[in-house]
Amino acid sequence: xxxxxxxxxxxxxxxxxxxxxxxxxxxxxxxxxxxxxxxxxxxxxxxxxxxxxxxxxxxxxxxxxxxxxxxxxxxxxxxxxxxxxxxxxxxxxxxxxxxxxxxxxxxxxxxxxxxxxxxxxxxxxxxxxxxxxxxxxxxxxxxxxxxxxxxxxxxxxxxxxxxxxxxxxxxxxxxxxxxxxxxxxxxxxxxxxxxxxxxxxxxxxxxxxxxxxxxxxxx
Length: 219
Prior knowledge:
Elements: H1 2-21, E1 22-23, E2 26-27, H2 38-51, E3 58-62, H3 63-69, H4 74-81, E4 91-92, H5 98-105, H6 115-118, H7 121-128, E5 131-133, E6 141-143, H8 156-161, H9 164-182, H10 186-218
Antiparallel strand pairs: 1-2, 3-4, 5-6
Helix pairs in contact: 2-9, 7-9
């Protein structure tokens, strides 16, 4: 019985480890998350709003929160990145109805606010870089990560007009933006964590000096 439990634990661990590094039938590409660079996140936001937002909402985010976090003047944001007349304080919902989506696309595209939490960032990065031509598919493309994917390669024009490094940078910025939007307060928590550690370091230093003084008095 004990041997069976060990074997089950071994196979469970190995299955989890394999899933951790896999992207469908291939291994995930290496990707380093960096949500501290606002310029990169602004580029990712711009790519998302221009190429993804027509079908994929970010319904748990607000325009103004994103603009404030990424240090984008609200007037600039409204004039260049809000296309449907929504107010800055509104949630980032798309105007595409479920009925129209089903009629035109065959299914309603999922909201992507929490995509980077449902799937790891490496999966998103690899998926967006893994489209290839496939004439047997409705949109003429397929994906190594998500076989028989129903989503068209919406970034195909960018990929064909850029160098590989330039395109990878676009995908990296877009992925980092999705990581940010999945947990906007994470940057504040990390910053607060630094302040807490500095406080503890300072407090410990004063406590040690005070301890030394008390120790002198006891001698």
